[in-house]
Amino acid sequence: MYKIGIADTTFARYDMAKEVIKTLDKFYGQVTYQRYVVPGIKDLPVASFILFEKYNCDLVIALGMPGPKAYDKASAQIASEGLMMCQLKFGKHILEVFVHEDEGSTDYELKQIMQDRSIKHTFNAVYLLTNPQWLVDNAGRGKRQGFTDAKAIE
Amino acid sequence: MYKIGIADTTFARYDMAKEVIKTLDKFYGQVTYQRYVVPGIKDLPVASFILFEKYNCDLVIALGMPGPKAYDKASAQIASEGLMMCQLKFGKHILEVFVHEDEGSTDYELKQIMQDRSIKHTFNAVYLLTNPQWLVDNAGRGKRQGFTDAKAIE
Amino acid sequence: MYKIGIADTTFARYDMAKEVIKTLDKFYGQVTYQRYVVPGIKDLPVASFILFEKYNCDLVIALGMPGPKAYDKASAQIASEGLMMCQLKFGKHILEVFVHEDEGSTDYELKQIMQDRSIKHTFNAVYLLTNPQWLVDNAGRGKRQGFTDAKAIE
Amino acid sequence: MYKIGIADTTFARYDMAKEVIKTLDKFYGQVTYQRYVVPGIKDLPVASFILFEKYNCDLVIALGMPGPKAYDKASAQIASEGLMMCQLKFGKHILEVFVHEDEGSTDYELKQIMQDRSIKHTFNAVYLLTNPQWLVDNAGRGKRQGFTDAKAIE
Amino acid sequence: MYKIGIADTTFARYDMAKEVIKTLDKFYGQVTYQRYVVPGIKDLPVASFILFEKYNCDLVIALGMPGPKAYDKASAQIASEGLMMCQLKFGKHILEVFVHEDEGSTDYELKQIMQDRSIKHTFNAVYLLTNPQWLVDNAGRGKRQGFTDAKAIE
Predict the structure, then answer these.
(1) Nearest CA to CA, how far is E62 from chain C (Å)?
(2) Fewer CB atoms near the end CB (10 Å): N or C, chain B?
């Protein structure tokens, strides 16, 4: 039985964790989860740290929604660096599921991206832990999260 | 009883720590605090280190006010990186409360942003330690500090 | 007998690992390999960590294909930082074989770059482990991977 | 008795350490110092490391003068990152006293900035070690080094 | 007897290590050296790690020649970050001798820069280990490597 950590924020404008949890429910009996909510994306690395150390999670899904301004982009870069440092401290994956507010031009489009990305990365998380062969079978296939897959070059 | 560290600078043009302390006073009996003042934002990571290691704080609120020039932006990026490294050394949250001088166009506006951001992040700090359910209840709700909240996408 | 780790992604649009494996087969008896596939380039540092720690690899070849957008460039920078941190944790080489999607103007050109870079870096990997004198002999010779060599200055 | 480390470079066009030492002499009996000179700003982090580890300094003042080109700005960023990593390794302050060559338009102006910044940061260094209350009393007061103070917002 | 490590690449278009070795020969009996060649600049940090850990070098000279494209500049930044991390792991100097391909407009000019920078930094390396007073005597004197010295401000 694997335990997946979910770290998310009050800053995000959509509750992506809801999509993650709904998807994890399909794997009932195989994976369980622990959720930890923080104010903003820069707080996700410590959230992940705590999910690994205190809650013994095997992998963390970190959900965030950086704003469109230069300052927000800088925050996203720092948050990503922190998630990287945390991963290399524990030797465990943190799947970064960030949706930049300027990736969609309407709230409807943004919501589509957030749902698609959250769901597909939840599958990635489960496969990394329980079925790595799925990833080998899809290596170099142009898989995308948030959008339709890119064309693979044969 | 939790202890919150407050790290702030002589460089900032407003005493944000005053707002933090006033807000913490509402939680008398639940949280106590320790303050440590440094010259500039790049000195906040070691201030936080000392607040964690020497003063045994459970969480640090780091207050800073980066200037508007390219050089100041670069300093803010380094300061944020340092706060991130420090957080991942101790596995404890540092809430970064930075107000960039170009976020407001007048001193009055800047002061409003600084007060609002300091107060709301102090609540975040207390809730992270004493009432994490508040954060879960507000996940994905577009909470903002310094400004009014953003619209949540249902 | 040396063991080379291969870390690659489902995001890439071409299966570069295939080229690496084909090249490693020329060194049958001298080197063996272990493959680990992840969703995207930011997941390669932990993949490398696991290849070093769990699978005892002596060197890792990390294959990735960053997209052309500013966001992709930022991801590539974080991925590279993570690969660097991982290398300095273990004191072992990770050869970063990234092909940026805008390095080629057609899929055909991209494929040529990916094949050439993958193959040449596989030779580099093997030489680093088994024949460092080859690298000394080629020091300062303008060797390029993905393109023809640059002119050496005598 | 506190010991302050002084790290400076042969690259700088002015001997800022001279100003630091002159200022430290005012605190004879309270602080002593150790100097370590390196070629350029990227060498200051190891200089600080050695001043902490070998010479047991309590705080380091790192003096540098980055050039005006993009390449110099990138070097200054790396140097600052290194000073940050070093601070968080030892949990001790390094006051970064960098004067960018483009901060002044004449050599005379540059010299004024370098003198003012070196002297004021030496006072900061001494106060951090011996009189932290001075910093508390000046928190949020818009203190500047190299220029006159900014206006505080009441 | 000090041991200096030399790390260089097959990517560079000129054999700068040759200049370093020729210069070190002037210090026969005082310093010895160990060379380690890698494919590109991002591989220099692990080369330095190995020169420190396996070969017990006291200092490393890292030679590289980043290309002129944005991608190359990003690689140089990562390489520098890695060299910084490695220095702070061992508390020993790595003198970064990078010559950017766009620093010279002709191959002849580039070669002049590479020779001058390699030779002068080899002297810096030897002085750091055997004659630190030379650096103190030249502090703030505008010393340059690759070009003539800048004017010192008295």
Answers:
(1) 13
(2) N
